[in-house]
Design a protein that fits this description.
single chain, 135 residues, mainly alpha, Histone, subunit A, 4 helices, 2 strands, disordered C terminus, DNA binding, centromere, kinetochore, DNA repair
Length: 135
């Protein structure tokens, strides 16, 4: 049990470090672009807020899926999460549409391949290999 807690703590610390590194890089880009400086304390505070918000998002997404009696988080859950920010919601919906169009295109290509050159089983049925689709 203690080993699991140590492993979880180590994983969380690595995630926090990655978020801090990313936030620091973004702040550096902004400071170069906008001629504004960020103190180390400000970067640390932004990193902590970002990490906590991501934890909240993860819990909310899990609850949305559970409410829908599912064990998998889907794009509708993400859209629901982003509903309070109009610009984020618009971005998420556009991205969702891109993914859906890409999936349809890939399905069409797979169907053509399976019809023209699918492998045959001994019973005569063709086999088409399909990857998991995001919905």
């Amino acid at each position: 049990m203690a080993e699991d807690d140590d492993q979880r703590l180590s994983h969380t610390q690595r995630l926090k470090a990655a978020v801090h590194f990313t936030v620091g890089g973004l702040c550096q880009e902004i400071s170069e672009d906008k001629q504004v400086n960020f103190s180390k304390q400000a970067i640390a505070a932004l990193s902590e807020i970002t990490f906590r918000q991501c934890e909240t998002f993860a819990k909310d997404l899990e609850m949305f899926a559970r409410h829908g009696k599912r064990s998998t988080i889907n794009m509708d859950d993400v859209k629901l999460l982003s509903r309070r920010s109009r610009s984020l919601y618009t971005h998420i919906c556009a991205y969702s549409d891109e993914i859906a169009a890409s999936n349809l295109e890939q399905k069409g290509k797979r169907k053509k391949k399976s019809v023209s050159g699918g492998k045959r089983r001994s019973d005569g049925d063709s086999v088409a290999v399909e990857s998991e689709d995001m919905e």
